[in-house]
Amino acid sequence: MFWYKFIYPNQSLLELDLIDDVYDNCQKQFNEHVAFVWEDIARKSLIDINIDNIKWKPDLRWWGKGIDGKQMEIDIVADFFDHKNLLIGEVKREKHSDINRIHQKLLYMSKNFPNKKKKNIVLACWLKSKPKHISGFEHIFLPEHVM
Fold first, then answer.
1. Radius of gyration of the chain (CA)
2. What's 43-146's CATH class?
3. Fewest CB within 10 angstroms: 69, 78, 79, 86, which?
4. Quick one: which of 114, 9, 131, 21 has its CA closest to 62?
5. Residue 130: which residues within 8 A CB-CB, separation 6 or more?
6. Can you give the pTM of this predicted structure?
7. DSSP 9
8. Strands 60-65 and 140-141, bridge-based pairing
9. Cα(8)–Cα(145) distance, integer angstroms
10. What is the pLDDT of residue 145?
């Protein structure tokens, strides 16, 4: 993925020995690229990790209007094979995540999600580093849990 994003499009510039220019340009996009990769890793990890003794189906990102009519974007939405459980998750790459803010956001999204029907909602988040304070939020996954 890195090669196709950074090397391939700049191959002719690299061949002209404009390495520093290519590097400077790539630096501007690098954090966004790493965030995309982290979200992809989190999404793929769901089928291998145990959350509430449930084997989750592969998940998707979800965009749409919530029950309140406002636009929502949910990083991870996954169903269980019995269609009785639904996982709603958030992926963050910031150095110090506010777990209480993330938990509140997930609670709002779970209550506002239009396709939940009568499913048991499970909330989870994937973080770059362990938060300082974890207050009652059970399903937090760090890089060491998903690699």
1. 18
2. alpha beta
3. 69
4. 114
5. 140, 142
6. 0.79
7. G
8. unpaired
9. 32
10. 82
Task: Indicate the length of the chain as a whole number.
Answer: 147
Here the tokens at position 114 are 């239009």
Query: Distance between CA atoms of 37 and 29, rounded to whole angstroms?
Result: 13
Neighbours of 104 (CB within 10 A): 11
* H or E stretch at 71: strand 71-79
Q: 86 and 116 in contact (C-beta within 8 Å)?
A: yes
CA gap 6, 135 in Å, rounded: 40
- Does residue 13 come out as left (phi exceeding 0), alpha (psi in the -120 to 50 range) or beta? alpha
Give the integer Cα–Cα distance in Å for 89 and 71.
Answer: 17
Dist CA 100 CA 132 (whole Å): 11
* Alpha carbon distance 144, 147 (integer Å): 6
Question: In Å, what is the CA distance from 92 to each residue of 35, 128, 138, 140, 144?
Answer: 8, 7, 16, 11, 15
Residue 133 near residue 100 (C-beta atoms within 8 A): yes
Look-up of token digits 């998940």: 59
Write out pLDDT tens, residues 97-140: 888 889 999 999 999 999 788 889 999 999 988 887 776 778 88
Which residue is listed with tokens 């499913």? 119
Picking from 81, 74, 77, the residue whose alpha carbon sits closest to that of residue 46 is 77
